[in-house]
Amino acid sequence: MNRRMFLGTLAGSLLAAPLAAQSQGTRKPPTVGFVEAGSASVNRHFADAFRQGLMELGYVEGQDIVIAERWAEGKSERFPVLLAELLRLKADVIVAASSPGAEAAKKATSTVPIIFVGVSDPIALGLVASLARPGGNLTGLSLAAEEGLGGKWAELLKQAAPTASRVALLFNPLGGSTISRRMKETHAAASALGLRPKDFEVRDTKDINGAFAEMTREHMGALLVMTDPLTLRYRARIVQLAANNRLPAVYSFGEFAYAGGLLAYGPNVAAMFYRAATYVDRLLKGAKPGDLPVEQPTTFELIINLKTAKALGLTIPPSLLARADQIIE
Questions:
Q1: Which residues contact 31 (CB under 8 A, 6 or more apart)?
Q2: Mean pLDDT to the nearest integer, 35-58
Q3: Confidence class of residue 26 from pLDDT cuts 50, 70 and 90?
Q4: List of residues 6+ apart from 327 with CB closer than 8 A
Q5: Any idea what the Cα angle at residue 83 is, between residues 80 and 88, rounded to 5°?
Q6: Which residues, 6 or more positions from 265, have their beta carbon under 8 angstroms from its beta carbon?
Q7: Are residues 259 and 139 in the same domain?
Q8: Are residues 309 and 173 in the same domain?
């Protein structure tokens, strides 16, 4: 696990408290429904981080707790079906990843506790009444914490690829209000830096190749990718196409840099899944979701892939390297 995975926030009292499942004798262990936006083949580390968090809280899977996984495969329309399956299993708690997943979970049940992970703006989406006192049956971990992220991505791209002038913005228009807000931020920041941004939409996997072909025709010199379940699931293909087209690119999740992307700046998403385990623990011990504050990331990581920089013929400025939390060589 990454050392930034909020280890210091795990309260000792949670470790010391007796497990609810154990106190119930031979009763069937509680079931936690885990609904992830992507596919198990590429996002397995999110589920692993969640399991690691539970294990460190003293849970033994199959004995103290049952985890029922469901994967949306990057298709938000699958969430209602997957959630219905978990409700038929009588899940005691549901962990729902992404904004579309949380919205679908809210529609699916008003009684089963829901922990969302990676939601863009839970207040704007109507998931909670406030971050401090969510109310209702939802709480969890939000991505919305830092304004101006779009400006930071544009600035990083300008520093890493100073000769680029035309910048492609790859995004899913179905990605929700936060994508729209980040797009506006990025457009304004890029223009202020003398860059010329142009939008390229991807609504499905079949659109990705076409978007990059259009970038080539438009002579784009760099790339900014807005993350949503679709682009995150197909990150390996996006990174490879960026490399094939020799496009320096900046991404918002570290997963893209690990897949070979040039730069990533954003919160540690795996850490959020790890932290979600503490919410499960508290709910199984009797806490109400409406009383548990929504957490927001306090740490944003800059990851630089020097192997990719070398392949693109780029020299990353020492000032930028000094700011990096992780350098892939």
A1: 65, 66, 67, 68, 89, 90, 91, 92
A2: 95
A3: low
A4: 303, 304, 306, 321
A5: 125
A6: 149, 152, 153, 156, 250, 251, 252, 300, 301, 302, 303
A7: no
A8: yes
Q: Is residue 308 part of a domain?
A: yes
Say if residue 139 is in the same domain as residue 63: yes
155 phi and psi angles, rounded to 5 deg:
-65, -45
- Per DSSP, the three-state class of 213 is helix
pLDDT band at 17 (very low <50, low <70, confident <90, very high): very low
Direct distance between the N- and C-terminal alpha carbons of the chain, in angstroms, rounded to an integer = 19
| Residues in CB range of 134: below 8 A, 6 or more apart | 122, 127, 128, 289, 290, 291, 292, 293, 294
**Is-contact 263 305, C-beta < 8 A?**
yes
pLDDT at 220 over 90: yes
Q: Residue count of the chain, please give it.
A: 329
Tell me: pLDDT of 90 over 90.
yes
What CATH number does residue 260 fall under? 3.40.50.2300
Q: Is residue 165 part of a domain?
A: yes
Query: One-letter amino acid identity for 326?
Result: Q
Q: Is residue 307 domain-shared with residue 293, that is, in the same domain?
A: no
Confidence of residue 244 (pLDDT cuts 50, 70, 90): very high
The residues near 162 (Cβ < 8 Å, ≥ 6 apart) are none
Q: Is the pLDDT of residue 177 over 70?
A: no
The amino acid that residue 75 corresponds to is: K
Whether residues 257 and 274 share a domain: the answer is no
Cβ atoms of 32 and 91 closer than 8 Å: yes
Count: domains in the chain: 2
Within 10 angstroms of residue 41's Cβ, the number of other Cβ atoms is: 9
pLDDT of res. 182 = 82
Q: Of 38, 171, 173, which is closest to residue 101 (Cα–Cα)?
A: 38
Compute how many other C-beta atoms are within 10 angstroms of the C-beta atom of residue 42.
18
Query: Are 131 and 202 part of one and the same domain?
Result: no
At position 328, the amino acid (one-letter code) is I
Could you tell me if residue 29 is inside a domain?
yes
Question: Could you tell me the residue range of the domain that residue 97 belongs to?
Answer: 7-145+269-298
